[in-house]
Amino acid sequence: MERHLAAVLIADVVGYSRLSQIDEEGTRARFQTDLNEVFQPTIAEHHGRLVKTIGDGILVEFHSVVDALRCAVGIQQQKAKRNADESPEKRLNFRIGINLGDIIVEGEDIHGDGVNIADRIQALAEPGGIAISGTAYDHVKGKLPIGFTSLGEQKVKSIAEPIRVYRVVLDPATAGTTIGVRRNLRRWVVPAAAVTVILLFAGAGAWWYPWRTAGEQSDVRNAVAADTRPSLVVLPFDNLSEDKQQGFLADGITEDLTTELARLPGLFVISRNAAFTYKEKATKPAQISSELGVRYILEGSIRRAGDEMRVNAQLIDATTGGHMWAERFDGAWSDVFELQDKMVGEIATALKLRLVSGQQAAQIAGGTSNTAAYEAYLRGRELELRAKPEDWVKAVRHYEQALALDPKFGNAAAALAWIYREAQWTEARSKELGLTEEETRAKADTYFAEAAKNPSPMYYRILTAKLKMQQRSDEAIAAAERAVALDASDAENYEWLSTAMIYNGRATDGLGYLDAATRVDPVWSRSRYFTAGLAYFSMDRFKEAAAALEKIAPEAKETSYWDFWSNYLGLMLLISTYGQLEQSADADKARERLKPYLAKAQESEYTGLMAAGEFSFKHYADLERVLVGLRKAGVPELPFGLDPQSPDRLDGTAIRKLLFGHEVQGRNLGTGEAYRRATEDNGTTHITVGDWSDTGKSTIEGNLLCIFYPSESRFCAVIFRNPGGTYAQKNEYLLATHWNRFEFSVVK
């Protein structure tokens, strides 16, 4: 038996089992093509030896770790170009892991820890990415025009000691740099720990789907056991102050401790929302541990009298019920940030987590060092979380006070941007804040611009929503990833990332991030059921989509303002789902269930044209799937009694030729207002209707013209020739949206 040091490269196809279930022969053929045309020539070019393939895995040995990494970079660059020419369902993405270590050679085969570690590291790479061990990094840093991101020390299955892991960054601008894991509580940190969380959960596969029957569910404990990191929940701290109105401080500090602890490399932290389900309940540690899948519980109390504050905290090992750490902190309220940092540091020490200190130059995640601003923000946060528009007025006052005290307080600016953004959509919600819709929209834009100067997770969630609506889902994914990186304990960040993935055409990846959301918060919200339904619908798994969407239960009492949107969009999609399943009776029932929501949204009917505006997919094939289901369900394709099969209807090519690079003039048939539209060759569109004007972007989707205006959101339209129209009357064509009709002629 021979042993020697070698560089080991292992590559694996992402989602191979799922792809094989859809098209086994085609998937295998594509794998073989990649092996023959990409892997083997590149391996030979860099002096490697293909040891073997195992299913969808490839094992390669190199004498030089630099050659191994050059080979991996070449492979991923070639695959990126090939995938760009493939439809999403036919793309094969590989994860690659590289380790430098001792191997055992038996004949032509190799094995041992050197191989095992490469395999474990491969699982930590992103789809289409490369991860390497610390031993490999020590030999290659500075030798290739690439950069690295440190994931810190990772505990992986079947390997006794934690291993250092680095992700390769292929951007030439990062060449020679390594972004490290830093401990910067309340200040800027590189999101290595959060990235690790994403990868672990995305790679774990679907482990719990609450809409399944009991016999179909997987054992949650198996998934928890697969995650070897220490796991913790911060229970709501008790308010022991004589002033019971000080409870917002205890809740706010609990939330901030949750966020800060989640930034520690190697620690998994349950979300604030899941933890608060135990507020003011006498629940045994063992039960909490079992229900949330965590080992450690942090609990405590806060007493504040004037400017003086006392915090008691203790860390419990739920497996034994014993106290691992307990401490009392006395100090002034002005020392609250230092106190929280001290607590996090001592907890990390108790859990034997390694902290890496770094420059504390910039505020982290839109935070503040102004205690008065912080207190005002926490008061606003408590009111906002009641999720009732009438409480928003009070919350806005506190957030504005916080921002006035610290103009760089990004969290406060983002909170204001969020409230005004949600209030802008209807006149009733704007009136709650004493504003018109236009004034509310202007406020939302102003505060969003302020939030962008000191970005927080909330800012990135709003940015994700804006980009998704504009069909810029690639950028939306990047924004959502930043939200997760800044706060890995918030399930909503994963849900937004999942949504962006689905609209990007990556529904399978989107489901993986719902698994991550479920791990940090096991309780499924209506919005999470909608996202799951959208993912399954996009994968043509309509029965599972229907099961998830029915779990939204729109007839049940709405517990918050946000439930409306899940109910509304969920029923829209459910109708199409039943149409695809050819369950006409169920589709008819869903259409009846949607009517009260249409009335509340001041919509007269649901049409395919309306749905086209709501579902802003990157690829038209995903939107067409929705529209086909609606047609099968009997939903009118167009409003105003327009005939979608009319010979006068223009197709997508004709619409582009008519509008792009031209100016049209006419009038709104409903109001008589003058209508002018100028569209540049790249789709940039300038529009004026009466006194209103805006500049947006037009795209052709199938035979639809879809438009995004910042002041009007996204909507779609169809165009018909008017056989009796004349240029003099400016009525040769008719443009119809879901709400309006415009007659026009091309004037330039």
From TrEMBL:
Keyword Mitochondrion included in the entry's annotation: no
Molecular-function GO terms, alphabetical: adenylate cyclase activity
Keywords: Membrane, Transmembrane, Transmembrane helix
Domain Guanylate cyclase: 7-122
GO annotation, biological process: cAMP biosynthetic process; intracellular signal transduction
Transmembrane parts of this sequence: 188-209
Any one Pfam family match given in the protein's UniProt record, by short name: Guanylate_cyc
Keyword Cell membrane assigned: no
PANTHER family on file: ADENYLATE CYCLASE, TERMINAL-DIFFERENTIATION SPECIFIC-RELATED (PTHR43081), PH-SENSITIVE ADENYLATE CYCLASE RV1264 (PTHR43081:SF19)
Protein name according to UniProt: Guanylate cyclase
UniProt organism field: Phyllobacterium brassicacearum
